[in-house]
């Protein structure tokens, strides 16, 4: 879903995927001697981060041409790319030109003049980019959480909009659709989620919707409330509930609680359906207008990662335990499911713990981590 979708529109870049009935490994390469981070499929190749340091690896379509760049501080969530520039969150927001292999700018995201805090603002979650600007959520140590707009050419700050005067130490990722940015932030003081729509140009607040968190904020996971756009709706999950709100008004259109197991997040979407996986190995397609089931499919093992959505297929990964107490030797299953019917197209097994799949450049990309012969991370391109 969101991996590689730098505007959080629900549309994957280069999402056309021609799959045979038997998946082929187009290439596979070792990334690092430690756990790999999220993958982003771009028009320039595959980008992934490593968990041990601030480096990010870029494969320019050909895995033998590997580039490593540094984010200038601890990474935050996945990087994004726009017009040949790769943007990293973390203690700083850094822009790297992947064509020229140079850092364009890096900023500590200091608050606007007159703000109470003088502490640099870390970026929490994946930035969003468009033709002229970069949008990111910063977590202020005392004042809470704000949404920032920066000039894409030099990183200068154009506006910030407070979202909440409280914060949790989690990632916050906005969705961009037309002239609106929508962010969802939890309020631990009231056990609610605040969905906030902000004008992308002016930074003014358009609407705010408060939703109760079933079970309180202790019940939500790290990525529970990452929103996606689905037609005229913004959709996100809190706990076991999926919410759909009207993009223009913030009105709650429907809510869904799964009858097929514990929903994991974040959800995925296109202009027809909302897609989610459950920990019990079910993949769900819901009508994005009503929240009613379109189809339910089963895959081998437990689902621990969100699904990826292409033009014709949904790709999910399942994990099966093999008796290892830590599960680090358990085999992973990658499953391609036809969007129109929910029918399985193919499955592929690989040793190790699978990360969230990504669709792009005509392939399915999946990262795997295993410690059987030492700690190693690999990235495989399937098609």
Automatic annotation (TrEMBL):
Database matches in SUPFAM superfamilies: Quinoprotein alcohol dehydrogenase-like
InterPro entries: PQQ_b-propeller_rpt, PQQ_rpt_dom, Quinoprotein_ADH-like_sf, WD40/YVTN_repeat-like_dom_sf
Pyrrolo-quinoline quinone repeat domain span: 24-170, 240-365
Region Disordered, annotated ranges: 1-23
Biased segments, Basic residues type: 1-10
Name assigned to this protein: Pyrrolo-quinoline quinone
Species the sequence originates in: Natronobacterium lacisalsi AJ5
């Amino acid at each position: 879903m969101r991996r590689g979708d730098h505007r959080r529109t629900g549309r994957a870049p280069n999402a056309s995927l021609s799959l045979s009935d038997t998946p082929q490994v187009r290439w596979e390469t070792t990334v690092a001697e430690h756990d790999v981070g999220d993958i982003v499929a771009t028009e320039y190749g595959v980008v992934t981060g490593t968990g041990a340091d601030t480096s990010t690896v870029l494969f320019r379509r050909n895995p033998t041409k590997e580039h490593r760049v540094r984010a200038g501080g601890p990474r935050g969530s996945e990087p994004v790319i726009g017009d040949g520039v790769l943007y990293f969150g973390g203690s700083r927001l850094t822009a790297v030109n992947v064509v020229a292999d140079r850092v364009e700018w890096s900023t500590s995201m200091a608050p606007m003049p007159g703000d109470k805090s003088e502490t640099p603002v870390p970026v929490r979650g994946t930035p969003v980019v468009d033709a002229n600007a970069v949008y990111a959520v910063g977590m202020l140590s005392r004042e809470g959480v704000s949404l920032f707009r920066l000039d894409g050419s030099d990183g200068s700050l154009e506006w910030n909009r407070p979202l909440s005067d409280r914060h949790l130490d989690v990632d916050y990722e906005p969705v961009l659709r037309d002239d609106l940015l929508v962010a969802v932030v939890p309020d631990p003081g009231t056990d609610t989620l605040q969905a906030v729509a902000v004008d992308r140009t002016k930074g003014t607040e358009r609407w705010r919707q408060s939703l109760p968190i079933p079970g309180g904020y202790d019940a939500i996971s790290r990525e529970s409330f990452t929103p996606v756009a689905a037609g005229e709706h913004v959709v996100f999950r809190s706990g076991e509930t999926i919410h759909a709100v009207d993009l223009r008004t913030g009105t709650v259109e429907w809510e869904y609680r799964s009858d097929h197991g514990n929903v994991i997040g974040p959800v995925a979407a296109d202009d027809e359906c909302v897609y989610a996986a459950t920990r019990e190995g079910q993949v769900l397609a819901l009508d994005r207008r009503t929240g009613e089931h379109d189809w339910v499919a089963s895959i081998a093992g437990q689902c621990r990662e969100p699904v990826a959505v292409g033009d014709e297929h949904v790709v999910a990964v399942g994990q099966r335990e093999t008796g290892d107490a830590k599960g680090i030797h358990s085999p992973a299953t990658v499953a391609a499911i036809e969007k129109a019917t929910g029918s399985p197209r193919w499955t592929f097994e690989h040793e190790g713990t699978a990360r969230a799949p990504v669709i792009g450049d005509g392939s399915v990309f999946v990262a795997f981590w295993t410690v059987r012969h030492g700690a190693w991370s690999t990235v495989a391109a399937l098609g």
